[in-house]
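Example 4.3 (complexes with small molecules)
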Amino acid sequence: MSTGSDGRPRPSTPSEASQRSSDRLPKTADFIVLGAGVMGASIAFHLARRNAGRIAVLDKDHAGSGGSGRSSALVRMHYSFPPEVQLALVSLKIFQHWRDIVGVPGEFRKTGFVRIVHPGESEALKQNVAMQTNLGANVHLIDRHQLKQLEPDWQVDEVDLAAYEPDSGYGDGNVVANDFLTRARDLGATYLSKTCATSFLIEAGRIRGVQTDHGELHAPVVIVATGPWTRPLFLSTGFDPPIESELHQVAILKNAPTMKPGAACIDSVTATYFRSDASDKFLVGDFYGKRPIDPDNFPQRPSETDLEEIIERAARRLPKLESAQVMRGVTGVYDVTPDLRPLLGQVPGVEALYLCAGFSGMGFKISPAIGLVMSELILDGKATTVDITPFHPERFQQGHPIKADYEYKDD
Ligand SMILES: Cc1cc2nc3c(=O)[nH]c(=O)nc-3n(C[C@H](O)[C@H](O)[C@H](O)COP(=O)(O)OP(=O)(O)OC[C@H]3O[C@@H](n4cnc5c(N)ncnc54)[C@H](O)[C@@H]3O)c2cc1C
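Answer. The structure with flavin-adenine dinucleotide bound is encoded below.
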């Protein structure tokens, strides 16, 4: 039995069960993918789907054991930078058609999603909703009265405008990582759990493979999807990806007697996000994180005081939370870049070494599309489904961090 991100037991599929015993370390592969979180697994799936060649996925622990398995897994289209919206839209289609594409039922739950911004940011909200609509998102501006009709339990007195996405919801990071990986293995990929890449093998400015704690593995292409563990791996390459680790905390509550599952929400006013969790539980997450933090050694549970404080803030929006019973807390580590956007693309100075990390709190919902665009970049030389060139890994060194036209203060 495996567990979902909320700790709920989930029956193993036959191929999931076989996945626990990992394959033997081969000597060579055509592609090495480091990390079996939602990103590494998605990349392996999309490469395998195109019959790209021999794919080896390595994880120092096991699939979903990083941020993916602890993710709150909200799925929404609301972003201020157009390529992020496009990545979210492509991913939503994959979540919605999981069985056809990945071959198993999936865990996407459509609840609807509401974005509430600070009262002074309504103009930015309008502009962003217009941009998202132009890109094909199903999103509407709603006023305080419409929001109250939609969610009668919410306290909305100070809300001027909100954005509502009826098709959005949430998923499960463990399920997505394991489903993608299982399908990639069905299509021929090799998976090595408990296998840590310790350094890159580089000759004449070109990647040749990786050194692991079980020996060398040679391949002409290496893709690094190692989340918060990424920076130290690059020490010997001359390129320093500016990724910092940040602790985030989440509370899981049992619904108060009259609480009903409602829309998921990101709420700048209370600096929290929340969503239902199955039919009888509720999840509340905090905007604020703590740095620095060691991704190999961080508190596994939030303190009572921190949990109370997070719930108290969310209860300003949803007063019924005050009488909900706290079941447990979840902690996890974000891999944060200076502009809170990922580093995607070839690593400067090392041919055929690709980076795919630094997703902060946004990676889950775009992971299906990230695997697709990374596979296009690697196999075709260019990502065509969505242009990902603005995310290139060298943008900070070149003085080009991403800045959207209508960013929120806490984007
Ligand atoms: C508490 C929390 C809440 C979140 N909520 C949301 C949300 O609501 N919506 C959303 O879209 N996103 C959310 N996120 C963000 C999202 O979960 C992450 O962006 C995403 O899971 C990152 O996936 P990843 O595959 O890049 O990294 P990870 O899941 O961290 O995977 C990296 C993998 O690499 C392996 N690894 C590391 N180093 C090595 C090495 N040297 N050799 C081999 N393997 C290695 C690790 O063991 C790990 O399995 C949240 C994250 C957290 C922590």
